[in-house]
Amino acid sequence: MNNNRIYKWLGGSLAAAAISACFTACSDDHFDIVDITPDGAGKVSLWDNISSKPELSQYKDILQSVYYSQSEDKTTPQTYADVLSGNATYTIWAPTNGSFNYEYYKGLLNTGERDSIYKVEKELIRNSMTRYSMIINSTDSVKVQLFNDKSAWLNYDKKTIKGMLMTHPNIASTNGVLHITEGPLPYQPNLYEFLKSRPDLDSISSFIKSFEKKQFDEFASTQGPTVNGEITWVDSVTYITNDYTRYYMGAFLEREDSNYVMIIPNNDAWKNTLDKTKNYFKYKLSYKQDVNTQTEQGKDTTITGAETKFTQIEIDSMTNFAAKDAICRYLSFNANWQYEQIPITSIADIRNADARIDSLRPTAGRKFKKTGTLSWVDSRNEVLAVDNYADLFGNADPIEVSNGYAYIVDNFAFPSSYYAPDKDIVARGYFESADKNCNPSALAWSKNVSLDKVDEETGEVIAHRDSTYKYDYLVMSNTSATAHPGAYFKLDNVLSCKYDIYVVIGYNTDYDLQNKFRAYISYDTDAKREKDEALKNPNEDAVDAEGKSIYNTNDFVNRKPVANDDLTMNYTDTILIARDFEFPVAYWGLDKAYPTIQLKSNFTSKQKAYYSREIWVNAIIMKAKEW
């Protein structure tokens, strides 16, 4: 199963996203050319100056052995000897013989492999030059953009760049300035490069890298003649993009002008977590979705929708992607800006955020909050409770990279709700159909309440509270005075695991009566579709409106609202309808296959004084269990 099929399966979000990127070209107009000082009175080119210095012979040899690249996979006929002999202006920081690993770089060049040659160009040559003319003649410090887009601090007073001393600065040339340094400028990878640079990170790296693709850059390429109405290209330039980091993680990990923090599980942590997450994404070869509806005559009926089919190879690919995405998606953070605008660039920053009970927000959008601080709104937005932020980041300072900080962890300390989140399904949005006894409608309900707290001995009011309560309901109204309404609700993106399932029922203040109802679930096994399986009440303390136990029966009853000690009311009741209910197969990412919950009013005519037939459904909540 190729990546295009995965994108389509996930709803086409990647295919619809606009793909944009900036390509660093050779041309002058790409750079803001700002001469810090005049060039000086150079009489020969940069290349001539380098060639005349015996102590730069190794660096010279590298320069004349490497052809200038327009992109990672596209070279020009010019070597860097040609480039530095031309008219374009550069500043070069040239390392002396023996100060850098000459044999290592020559070995990379001798392989003849494009990746190895480009590594020399990017990490040594382009890391020691800039497109500006920069003479050391003041005491300032400036941030320089190197030719590989990395940044380096240039200290005029100390005559250092990236901490490297310039032993012979300000050698003027006709096309720039040469500075001889005591060693090469340290090369610092960005987060994207860092992932691919360490063998102990190749599990997460190989997953992310699998989404790399080359994009044609029309603006950087040279157009040829038009043949038969089609544009031809004399020189086509490409650049690398990664749809996963961009559209799933919401991060541009390869950009030098960014500042990210990323939690990176090493191979052991990745494997141990992947062994868990794969259990949540067990798919089947074929899903036949039943949809409940009515005939033209108003009778209840069931129709079978379109069949969703997969090959075993596609299932393996889906499971592989989903299980790895569950680990990887929320691992990157903006280092400069968090919910409380607090930077997180050290483990001390993380611990301080923990102590302040700040929120942490990954670039993909999900938010982490301290355990015990989640609100009802938070739970509906998949905000995750975390005991200790520092545990997530490995409790150690990060490795600094050119565009941020990498926290390597050998233990994936995220709670299971990270990769198996709870689901809070709003009933109005996930209503599927009603039976013949039900007229469904939406209700935005609000109530103003004034409550007094009275001293039991004196009778005096000791506290007062005015509150407004607002709820959204799917109202299941009965079609006749004797009808018991029923309705079906979709459970989308369910994982193959155990859940505790709750329904949130609003108290029907119009009738001032409770509800008594039954719950049925339909779901897939490997072999077939289980239809309308009646759920038994798992709450040992459950009683009906007459105080009789309904534990282990098929009946469920909501409670009347009662004021709490803090003078608040709750006009809904969250009722456990299934404990540890296991779904054998997964539905994550499937648009046309899902389990359903049916709720149906149910009581005898002798009990009508206790219950309302009309049911106000607020939500269905599913709390996933860890494997």
Characterization of the model:
It contains 15 helices and 31 strands. The radius of gyration is 33 Å and the shape is elongated. The longest helix has 17 residues, at 312-328. The strands form eight sheets. Strands 4-3-9-8-7-6-5 form a seven-stranded mixed sheet. Strands 20, 22, 23, 25, 29 and 31 form a six-stranded antiparallel sheet that branches. The protein starts with a helix and ends with a strand. By secondary structure, it is α+β, with helices and mostly antiparallel strands.
Features:
627 residues, alpha+beta, 6-stranded antiparallel β-sheet, 15 helices
Span of the ends, CA to CA: 27 Å
The overall strand count is 31
Mean pLDDT: 88
**Annotation field: number of helices:** 15
Strand sequence of the main sheet, in spatial order? 4-3-9-8-7-6-5
Outline: elongated
Strand content: 35-45%
Rg from C-alpha positions? 33 Å
Main β-sheet, in a few words?
7 strands, mixed
Helical residue percent?
A: 10-25%
Q: Which regions are unreliable across 5 or more consecutive residues at pLDDT < 50? A: 1-41
Q: What structural class results from the helix and strand content?
A: alpha+beta
